[in-house]
Specification:
Chain lengths: ~350, ~500, ~290, ~375
């Protein structure tokens, strides 16, 4: 057994208790039977460089900044100027915004419709998606059916728009014929009436994107801990109660990610809306991004367009932040885990 | 084989080669054209006024130009047949085609930012010409330049059909000419002669006059026809609707549609400005006056007897409805005649359809004291030159503008894909006169009587409104009229709402 | 873990429920497939056949739908006359290019984000996600201007970069989830074994490879299906399939046969890919969500 | 081969210290176990040694060489991780060969060394398998194999056998010790399991809350804990604590509890007199240092049996002693019944006395 030399010069290696820092090194004392230290380090070593990580992040961050921050500042600049067909961009301060919020009926209407549209799409997609996932989860045909159900998702929204335009068409559309035949529609096609056009759009979105929710929910269902289910059943829960008490809470983060994805894309993509209705008839489907498209690209009122774009951007990001926050919350994290 | 410029984005793969190589290889072949950006080259050999015509045409040999066009048949046809132009001038032209909104946007940004990615632009009269008039080169400069070749038929107003040069070339001032007419779409009435004849006796019993369509047929008559057909349908007969409107999502043609009714009754226009010139500051609109409200009521009545899917039918869709035999009459652009006469796509083909001018104003409906005319509106696509380009590029572009609107080119397009000429001289080309009567190999020519000999002439022809905010104006009209037709607001409120928005748009 | 193994007890109610489930799934299946089926069949129809429709309420008229002479002329037309070969190539190149760029940049960035802590990391991460939320139309004008000044409009490079605007943030977000799920200990073991930091990073790539592969396909899918960017940034020199298809809607003529054929040409490869990666698709989408 | 000096090392995570002024010398060839509950800073210490964590303050030397700023690969160490950290996509062979490959060792040498190591660890037949196909023990051997093929100067073990089942753990303890003896390499072994530390290590460093409590041989730690915490932490079943009073009577010091009254031995009394002024103390005695009987003997004192728990080779008896409860370990043939009286005798040489307030061990 080697003898240890400790600061203070004491030879303690042969003491019966080995080495106890108390009494040898300053600051160490015993309290409540435990040795503690009441001191700070004299000097800290310099922090190691993390340039390494920085270099790894830089290319992506720089690319993103270039293609997102730069346009963003450009948007802000434009929104404060009167940018239209005529050359010479006049500074107008907040006039563009003032117009939007005081006398642009299409702007408020666009928001209202966008909220309606997104809410309807999300609601039905989640409802239908979860229902189908639950039914599929216990089906023998799960694999085959999921594969088939996924197909709409793989279709470009622009193509989907064209195909549905064809189906809805009042002259030769088979869906139109079907809806007429079962008495749902008169001779006015679904996109031809302000009262039904929005439903027509929502149906297309549901058709295309419910599979996403199905897929994500199925993944969630596979991770519902069986012990929780069994415990609940032993406790006397029926299947329906089991679903609400055990399955649904476990699906929570999965549904959130589905909602987040759909929410982002619902605001982002208007390909099919542009093709199907272009915002009409009578502004019934003139959701804000479509109106923005008109203002910027048809009227060439880029200043006003930028103001609309900014409001859209800000609201999207705030809502997105909200969703991500929930998403990061501990409740959403503890999935598939059983305590004990 | 057609000539294909070396850097052509659009490369044609011959059928035989395609079959030989198989699709995959053909795909790879196409890859050669992938990384082509927009580029221009200009080379010039100096010429003088006294030089030969050939030298004048050839002075920019080796130059490359870009023409941004809408995806319409004339541009496809010209793009496929550029070799004569290359042989004539040695200039390579790249023709890009896009959807109208995309063309608007790209051309707009190009023009406004002082650049010239596109030297030649498709100037759809009001949607592109009216907003961007200031950015196009003044073509008068080139017409009067004796170091440039000139078209033997001339480029002045007389060379084109009446009013055509004004429609797309004159914006706000006569000092500048911004475009030459390149193709045209003029409204006229397409109706099912077979059905009209079949039902005329019954109609006459009820309404007291024959069911036929002439230049004196009024909007009131149109209402009667439509009502008659609707009644027949209600009685269970297998007949189409009598009439339909262009009130679908295409705002421009929706506005042109109601404009024809308004103009027919006392030549009502929306602004108190010279219709042929237009104005950048048109002043307060006439929407909301007695005339407009009364006619809006009539428009709504017409809608009530028309095909019920009005709000889904934009111009193209409406034509499909007519093709499918679901309406007996439409006021439609004459460029669509070819598709109506195509047995493969249309049930109205084979002599069933006859063509007449647009309906006339009904005297009793006129509230502003004006005259009753056959209100006819149009879309004339012009070809204009980007003023941001260098002088030499502009001059080279002028060569193409001139060539692409020459009577030979137009004649070729007419024969090939059924274009709609803008040059008078085309009417005298071989076979064109004969083609105006059935049987015809140029179906669009069936409309020429109604259009070129009648509709486009004063006092029937309405050009405007030429205002920089034309596109926003169309959207306002479309939305409000749709609200009116769908019963969301009454005609008076509709006209007032239009007035308020239009005046707001014009800072009144 | 699978909940499907939970014991079921037969009862009349359950039997009725089972029938209802089958009926419901069948209806949903029909609803899912029909548009695709119609697209496929219509692409084989002549124009007039495509426009035929029975009288309202005439259910036997459904037979009309199947009463046609199949023709492949629309397909030949696309490839022989309309250059769809080139557009197909453009689509492949742009989608693949952007997927590779996004996943490469995204993976390195996501890895660094996953393995280091610094002040403001959460904010940076959120900013990255938020760039994907920006509505396309909102940023299109400035983006177009920027791309044009870089002479990227109408070129495949431009399109690749444009697609990267939405694929890259998504890649960082999802791939970070992948890396978070790989224990740091494996890299530590590598480093102790003698690897440099970079070698350690590379050593765990095989572990996330299935996820990255699936996500690569997802990026291809997003890019392939894009319309707005392609129509504005790409059209001209880099026209892609959806844009070329939309262009068949011409002012005077909607070429339905060709549109349906083009739809099939555009959709089939993606459906095939989807089939191929179905298993990983969920991982690709949810791995970011759930910590193992 | 190297000695290791950990010289006043601190580890901070943000503002939270995880290791506080750790001072530790490990001799060349020594097997030192770092023992403590989770969160005591033992793993951080090991990770600083490996170069996986930045050393916030102080320095670490291998031999005379300061290694603070060396990356792991330049430290000539090998480490076995708690979860083995095997590369799931590589075979056992490739896993073990990895460190050699990374150092550019020749293929034939690799082959040779891996096979040799595999033979030592008895996993030669598994070389072509992947970690997913291995049992826990086999994975653990593979991880160790990966560490030993390189013949490093220092082995670091981070709870390497914590996830094995009890039986296998016992087996591995022996094997690891044997291996270390055979290789003679310096080894630092982190564990929360005192049994592992006591059975394998040359010396044990006991840590709590980032602070070194005691460094010594297993015997020293077990027999002479420096404070109540160490006494309580080390030993299974745990030590019994009883609050007592010191009473001075006729020059003798007596330890008084409600159930017993013991005279301190002179040397014990001397220590108390010298170092402790208070009268309240805490007595600590391990369960196996109490004799229990159903028959009263001299020096014994009475209690009442609460529960008896036979555990194979031994029996544990819970005894109520005044207000306190005492655990006693005895032979399995002990015949006491529950709720019946019993008699305890303490092994006087082996019990401990701690200060009532500070918990410092007096002896």
């Amino acid at each position: 057994m080697a003898t240890q030399v400790l600061p203070g010069g004491a030879l303690r290696g042969d003491a019966p208790g080995g080495i106890n820092p108390v009494g040898i090194m300053p600051g160490f004392v015993t309290r409540d039977g435990v040795t503690v230290l009441e001191a700070e380090p004299l000097a800290r070593n310099p922090e190691p460089s993390r340039r390494y990580y920085f270099y790894m992040m830089a290319p992506a961050i720089i690319t993103l900044a270039a293609i997102s921050l730069y346009p963003f500042f450009w948007l802000i600049w434009m929104s404060l100027h009167d940018v239209d067909i005529m050359a010479g961009d006049k500074w107008v301060g907040l006039k563009n915004f003032e117009r939007l919020f005081t006398r642009d009926a299409k702007f408020s209407n666009g928001w209202l419709l966008l909220i309606q549209y997104s809410a309807m799409c999300l609601f039905f997609e989640v409802l239908l998606g979860v229902l189908i996932a639950v039914l599929l989860n216990r089906s023998r045909w799960e694999k085959v059916l999921v594969t088939v159900f996924l197909m709409p998702m793989m279709m470009a929204p622009a193509i989907a728009g064209l195909v549905w335009y064809y189906l809805y068409n009042g002259t030769f559309g088979w869906y139109h014929w079907f809806m007429q035949s079962v008495g749902l529609l008169g001779e006015t096609s679904i996109l031809g009436s302000p009262s039904t056009a929005m439903i027509g759009l929502v149906l297309v979105d549901i058709w295309q994107w419910t599979p996403l929710i199905v897929l994500i929910t199925l993944a969630g269902l596979k991770r519902v801990p069986r012990d929780q289910l069994e415990a609940n059943m032993v406790d006397g829960a029926g299947e329906i109660r089991n679903f609400f008490q055990v399955v649904l809470p476990n699906l929570y983060p999965f549904l959130l990610i589905g909602i987040l994805l759909r929410f982002m894309d619902n605001f982002r993509f208007i390909d099919s809306v542009l093709i199907l209705t272009g915002g009409g008839p009578a502004d019934a489907t003139n959701i804000l991004p479509v109106y923005l498209f008109d203002v910027s690209f048809q009227y060439f009122k880029l200043g006003r367009g930028a103001a609309i774009a900014l409001t859209l951007l800000v609201v999207t990001i705030i809502l997105g932040m909200f969703l991500v926050k929930i998403f990061d919350s501990p409740a959403a994290r503890n999935v598939g885990r059983t305590e004990g | 084989m057609f000539y294909v410029p070396k850097n052509a984005i659009y490369k044609r793969i011959p059928r035989r080669k395609f079959l030989e190589l198989g699709g995959g290889v053909a795909t790879a072949l196409g890859a050669g054209s992938v990384a082509v950006g927009l580029s221009s080259v200009v080379t010039r050999s100096p010429v003088q006024a006294a030089s030969s015509d050939d030298a004048k045409w050839k002075q920019y040999s080796g130059t490359k130009l870009v023409f941004m066009s809408e995806n319409t048949p004339p541009s496809f046809a010209i793009r496929e047949n550029l070799k004569p132009f290359y042989d004539l001038t040695g200039i390579e032209v790249e023709i890009l085609t896009d959807d109208l909104p995309v063309v608007q946007q790209k051309v707009g940004i190009d023009l406004r930012s002082g650049k010239a990615d596109f030297h030649l632009n498709y100037v759809q009269d009001k949607p592109i010409g009216a907003p961007f008039a200031d950015y196009f080169a003044n073509l008068n400069d080139f017409i009067n330049d004796d170091t440039l070749p000139q078209d033997p038929d001339g480029m002045g107003a007389d060379a084109w059909f009446e009013n055509f040069l004004d429609v797309c070339g004159t914006m706000y001032t006569r000092d500048r000419l911004i475009a030459f007419p390149y193709d045209s779409a003029v409204a006229c009435t397409f109706y099912r002669q077979d059905l009209f004849e079949q039902h005329s006796p019954d109609f006459e019993k009820e309404y007291g006059y024959r069911m036929e369509f002439t230049k004196d047929t009024t909007w009131k008559n149109v209402y009667d026809f439509a009502e008659f057909f609707k009644k027949l349908r209600a009685a269970g007969q297998d007949v189409p609707y009598g009439y339909a409107q262009h009130q679908g999502s295409f705002a421009w043609t929706a506005q042109l549609d109601i404009q024809r009714l308004m103009y027919a009754h006392g030549q009502w226009t929306e602004f108190d400005v010279d219709d042929k010139l237009g104005s950048k500051e048109p002043g307060p609109t006439r929407w909301g006056d007695e005339s407009s409200i009364f006619l809006m009521e009539k428009w709504k009545e017409l809608a009530s007897v028309a095909h019920p899917d009005n709000l889904a039918n934009d111009t193209l869709q409406l034509n499909t409805v007519y093709q499918a035999g679901q309406i007996a009459m439409q006021v439609q652009y004459h460029e669509f005649a070819a598709s109506i006469e195509d047995e493969k796509t249309s049930r109205a083909a084979g002599g069933k359809t006859a063509y007449a001018p647009c309906p006339k104003g009904e005297a009793s409906w006129i509230k502003n004291g004006g005259q009753a005319v056959n209100g006819t509106s149009c879309g004339i696509g012009g070809i204009g030159i980007n003023n941001n380009a260098s002088d030499d590029l502009k001059r080279a572009a002028y060569l193409f503008a001139m060539w692409s609107t020459s009577k030979e080119t137009q004649y070729n397009v007419l024969k090939g894909v059924g274009g709609t000429p803008t040059r008078k001289a085309v009417m005298d080309m071989p076979g064109v006169k004969e083609a105006r009567q059935r049987p015809t190999d140029m179906p669009n020519a069936l409309t020429f009587d109604a259009v070129y000999d009648y509709g486009i002439k004063d006092p029937h022809f309405v050009l405007g409104p030429k205002i920089p905010e034309a596109n926003e104006y169309y959207q306002i009209i479309l939305t409000e009229v749709q609200k009116c037709i769908s019963g969301q607001q009454d005609p008076a409120a509709t006209c007032e709402s239009i007035r308020d928005q239009v005046d707001d748009m014009n800072d009144i | 873990m699978a909940s499907k193994d939970v014991v079921e007890y037969a009862s009349p109610a359950r039997r009725i429920a089972n029938v209802a489930v089958v009926v419901f799934l069948a209806v949903y299946l029909l609803w899912t497939i029909l548009p695709i089926f119609v697209m496929f069949v219509s692409s084989l129809k002549d124009l007039l056949e495509a426009f035929r429709i029975p009288a309202v309420g005439d259910w036997s008229g459904i037979a009309l739908f199947f009463d046609f002479e199949p023709t492949f002329k629309h397909y030949t037309n696309l490839f022989v006359n309309l250059n769809f070969g080139v557009y197909f190539f453009n689509s492949v190149a742009a989608a693949l290019g952007s997927a590779v760029v996004s996943v490469t940049l995204g993976a390195t960035c996501a890895y660094a984000l996953s393995r280091t802590e610094f002040r403001g990391k959460k904010d940076l991460f959120f900013w990255i996600i938020s760039t994907r939320m920006a509505p396309v139309v909102a940023v299109m004008v400035p983006l177009y201007a920027i791309f044009r000044s870089l002479e990227l409009v109408g070129s495949l490079w431009g399109l690749i970069l444009a697609y990267t605007t939405f694929n890259l943030p998504f890649a960082i977000w999802i791939l970070k989830g992948f890396f978070d799920n790989v224990p740091f200990a494996i890299e530590e073991a590598q480093m102790v074994d003698g690897a440099t930091r970079m070698q350690a990073f590379r050593s765990i790539l095989p572990l996330v490879a299935p996820g990255i592969g699936a996500f690569l396909v997802l990026c291809v899918l997003f890019a392939w299906n894009d319309f707005l960017f392609a129509s504005i940034i790409g059209s001209g020199g880099a026209k892609t399939l959806p844009v070329a298809t939309k262009e068949l809607v011409q002012p005077q003529n909607i070429q339905w046969g060709s549109i349906m054929a083009a739809g099939v040409v555009t959709t089939l490869p993606m459906m095939f890919l989807g089939l191929l990666i179905r298993r990983y698709l969920v991982t690709g989408l949810t791995m970011g969500a759930v910590r193992e | 081969m190297a000695s290791v000096s950990i010289d006043k090392v601190w580890k901070y995570y943000g503002q939270t210290p995880a290791v506080k002024e750790l001072h530790l010398e490990v001799a060349d060839g020594e097997f030192v176990a770092v023992l403590g509950p989770s969160g005591c800073g033992k793993s951080s210490t090991l990770r600083m040694l490996a170069g996986l964590e930045h050393i916030s303050a102080g320095e670490i030397r291998f031999g005379a060489k300061r290694i603070n700023d060396l990356p792991p690969r330049d430290r000539d160490i090998a480490m076995v991780f708690e979860n083995y950290a095997l590369y799931p996509h590589k075979t056992v062979f490739d896993n073990m060969a990895n460190p050699l490959k990374l150092r550019g060792v020749e293929r034939s040498v690799i082959e040779d060394r891996v096979r040799k190591a595999a033979a030592i660890l008895e996993i030669g037949h598994l070389l072509e398998r992947r970690p997913g196909e291995l049992s826990g023990g086999q994975k653990q051997r593979t991880a160790i194999g990966r560490a030993i093929v390189r013949e490093p100067a220092l082995f670091l073990f981070d709870e390497p056998i914590a996830h094995l089942d009890a039986k296998l753990r016992a087996h591995m303890r022996g094997e690891l010790k044997l291996m270390q003896r055979r290789l003679g390499t310096t080894m630092i072994y982190v564990t929360h399991d005192q049994l592992e530390a006591l059975s394998m290590a040359d010396r044990i460093a006991v840590m709590n809350d980032g602070v070194l409590q005691q460094l010594g041989t297993p015997r020293q730690i077990y027999d002479h804990p420096v404070n109540a915490w160490v006494a309580g932490f080390v030993g299974e079943p745990p030590i019994n604590f009883l609050d007592c009073r010191i009473v001075e009577e006729k020059g003798e010091l007596r330890l008084v509890h409600s159930s017993f009254d013991l005279v301190l031995r002179p040397e014990q009394a001397a220590i108390v007199r010298e170092r402790y002024a208070q009268r309240e103390v805490r007595m600590g005695i391990r369960p196996d240092q109490i004799a229990i009987s159903t028959v009263e003997t001299p020096d014994s004192f009475g209690g009442q049996i609460l529960v008896t728990e036979p555990i194979g080779g031994d029996m544990l008896v819970d005894v109520s002693l005044g207000g306190d409860k005492v655990l006693v370990k005895t032979r399995p043939d002990f015949e006491g019944r529950m709720d019946s009286p019993c008699y305890l005798t303490l092994d006087r040489g082996r019990w401990h006395l701690f200060g009532k307030d500070d918990g410092v061990a007096l002896f």
